Amino acid sequence: MLDQVTKVHDESRQGEAFAPVATDDQTYRKKFYIESYGCAMNFNDSEIVASILNQEGFGATRNVEEANLILLNTCSIREKAEQTVRKRLTEFRRIKKETPGLLIGVLGCMAERLKTKLLEEEKLVDMVVGPDAYRSLPSLIAEAETGQKSVNVLLSREETYGDISPVRLDNNGVSSFVSIMRGCNNMCTFCVVPFTRGRERSRDAVSIVREAAELFENGYREVTLLGQNVDSYYWTSDDGSETVTFAQLLEKVALINPLLRVRFSTSHPKDITDEVLYTMAKHENICNYIHLPVQSGSNRILQLMNRTYTREWYMKKVERIREILPGCGLSTDIICGFCSETEEEHQETMDIMRFAAYDLAYMYFYSERPGTLAQRRYQDDIPEDVKKRRLAEVVELHRQQSEKSMKNDVGKTFKVLVEGTSKRSEEHLFGRNDQNKVIVFPRENFKKGEYVMVKVESCTSGTLIGNAVQ
Question: What region holds the MTTase N-terminal domain (predicted)?
Fold first, then answer.
C-alpha cells in the first residue's frame, strides 16, 4: 500500500453517504444507501450510479436502516481503505440478517480483485460490480433479488458514461467534478489503477462541455476536469470530422462563461504540453495550478517505477511552467522507500523538492499493493523504519517550503471564489485562489459562489488570512 502523511484523498469525505437531492420531488418505491471511498473519481462514479438507480425507481437515503440496497464504492489504492470497507460490510451483514430482502453490493476498484473472497469465501455481499459495469446494475439487482449472487467486473475499452447526467452529491453547490476520461495506459509499476479501471479512453467532448455548462446554469462556479492522466485526453468524433486534444477541451470549457473557473487533475510530466500551458495563460478563468507528480528524484528509481521520464526532463518541465505561467501553483506526489532505493537516491528526491519548491505535496512511504507490476518484479526490501525516517525528512522539508510559500503571499491580493463558512468562525468565509490556496476573510455581505478580491494580511502553515478589498 501507499501510506501517506498528507492525504491525496479527502479524508473528511471517506465513507460519506450520498444524500437525497433536495430539489427532487419524485416518489421512489425503494431506497438505496451508498458510501464512497477513495479519490474524486470514485465520488464522481457514485453520482453516475445514483443517476442509474434513480431511473430504476431507487431514491437515495442517508439512513441505512431504511435502505433496500446498500452499496460501497471502494478503493484499492490503500490497505486502510480495504480494511475499512471490510469492517463496514461486516456491520451491514448484521443489518441484513434482520432485514428480509436487503441487498448489499460492492462497487469500484476492490470489486475485480476481491470478488471471490467477498462473494464466496466470506459471503459478505450479494453483488460485485466493477467500475465499467454500472449500466448493468438493474439486471444485477434483479438477479440478486432471486437469491443468486451477481457479478460483473468486466473492463471496457469504450465505456465513459458520457451520456449519463450524474446526480450531484450533497456538496457545497459551488465546485464540482466532471470526468473526462477513464482508465490509464501508463502502467506505473507501483499502481493498481490499470488493472482495476482498465485501459484509457476519452469521453466525448460534446457531453463534457454540455455537463459543465449545465453545472454553471445550476449555480456552480468551478469545475475540475478529472482523469488519471488528463493530458493524454484525445477524442475523435464518430464521423472523424473533429478531433479534440486536452488543450482544446480546456478552452471549450473555459469559453462556457468567464465566471466559470476551470481546474484539472492529474497531469503526467511526460504528457503535459506547451499548448496546455499557453491555453491556461490565455484564459483568466483557467486556474494557474498544476498537480505534477514526480514520485522520485532518482533516474534509476523512476525507471523502476516505469515513469518514462528523467529528473532532468521533469526539471525542464517545471522551468517551462514557470516561464509560461509565472506564479503558477505546483503540487506533487512523492513515494519514499521504493524498492531498492538508496540513501543517495533519497537525497536526489530531496534535491528535486528544493528545486521545484512545491506549494503542496502528497507524501507516502511505499509498501506493495497486490496485483501491481512492482509486486511481481521487485522485492520490497527497504526496512519500514528507514521508509518512515525518509518520509519524515521529506515531510519536514515540505513543511518548510510550504511555510515559505504561504509567507510569500502575505501582502498580495487574490481573486477568491467563496465556497462557504469558515470551520472556525461563523463570521468568516473561506475560498481558494487561483493557486488552490485556502483564504479566510470576514463575511461582511458576501455570499457563497461570489468572487471576492482579498488582500492577504497574515497566514498559518496551511491558510491565508485577509480582508476583502474593492
Answer: 30-146
Task: Evaluate the omega torsion of the peptide bond into residue 266 and state whether it is cis, within 30 degrees of 0.
Answer: yes
* Nearest Cα residue to 131 out of 66, 74, 191: 74
Q: Round the CA-based radius of gyration of the chain to a whole number and report it.
A: 23
Q: What's the pTM?
A: 0.81
The residue type of 434 is: D
459 marked as part of a ligand binding site: no
User: Is the pLDDT assigned to residue 154 strictly greater than 80?
Assistant: no
Tell me the average pLDDT across 202-229.
Answer: 93
* 191 annotated among ligand-binding-site residues: yes
109 labeled part of a ligand binding site: yes
Q: Helix, strand or coil for residue 437? A: coil
CATH 3.30.420.10 at 16-152, yes or no: no
Helices (H), 288-367: 299-304, 311-324, 343-356
What residue spans define the domains of the chain? 16-152, 175-408, 410-468
Q: Percent of the chain beyond pLDDT 70?
A: 92
State the CB neighbour count (10 A cutoff) for residue 181: 24
Supply 88's cell numbers.
Answer: 463496514
Which CATH code fits 175-408? Answer: 3.80.30.20
75 annotated as ligand-binding: yes
CA distances, 344 to each of 188, 301, 398 (Å): 22, 11, 19
pLDDT band of 392, cuts 50, 70, 90: very high
